[in-house]
Please model this.
Amino acid sequence: MTIKLKKITTGPLPWLVKAKAKKDTKKMIKKIVELQHKLYADGRFSYLIILQWLDASGKDGLITKVLGAINPMGCSVKSFGVPTKEELAHDFLWRIHKETPAKGTIKVFNRSHYEDLVMPQINGTMTKKEYQRRLEAIKNFEQLLVDNGTIIIKCFLHVSAEKQREKLEERMIDPKKHRKHKDDDFRKASEYDKYIDIYSDVLTDTSWDHAPWHIIGTDENFSKEYEFATILLASLKKLPLKWPKLETSMHVLKAVKQNMTERKKEKKKKKKKENTDTLYEDTKGKKKDILLNDKSTKQIHMTSWSSSHQWEPQEKEKKDAGTEDITVSSKATVVKEKNTPHILTKRTQSVSSVKASRSSLIKADVINDELRV
Model:
């Protein structure tokens, strides 16, 4: 397959809606985090993510947004710059191979061994024979990784010349981005077409079945993050990941299960007791309120509903000259429901030296007089 970067858009996918894309990306990132945890626990596979790009294509933001939520124990980033003196004393893949991911982990290459195919051509220091030799070495190297359970995802972050210059200028204005600025970046940006042509050939020559290239437009961050998350999640879903089986003796497992059962019973009893105590406290509080209400109503004399619809106090009455005074204190309320009057009363009576039967008759007389009024 021939790749022509000049014919591939650097903008967002045409069918993407920004708001929905951002929402979907968050959901995918959450799922990626869950599957990465399972990948780490499974321990049979690893991931090598290669991010190759031109300057100012937004790789830092991509790593932070999509991979930032992953547990650092299972994910790391390695940046490759200009080879050191020690690295130049070895073959060009020496510094690369020792940074490959361990089983269960994800490794991100910020630039990679593909710099060793591009930069010598930019500088005019590589022959066609050397280029072919390195191509073969990279192909075999990546095949070796794949054969040992490493899944390789290669992404080229494709930025337009206009967006690249805009971001390079922003580095000079924004204090937070001063550290990224290099005067030489503008010289490289002026050779944009040359870089794009060389990268087109390299991507075409190194896009193999076991490790194909993905071209991601980076002019819009939401689209860049959405595309990358989609690629990574789809790959993780294809893996036959499994949670490892428990390794323990049966008697230990039996004891643990028994302890768990006992703890559950204790928690259940404790919860039941707490609910009972709460109910008791509520009931106790209600009783206290009732007692307080009774105490206050004892101070109120019986009242009656007058013709002017006003409550009027009713004087104490004496019943039967041959008996001692009987004091009746109550609060009476007349409720009309279906044309039937109901009198709700609370009484406290103080009776002295009167027989119980005579007292009952006096109570009845009081209620009859009240109804007549």
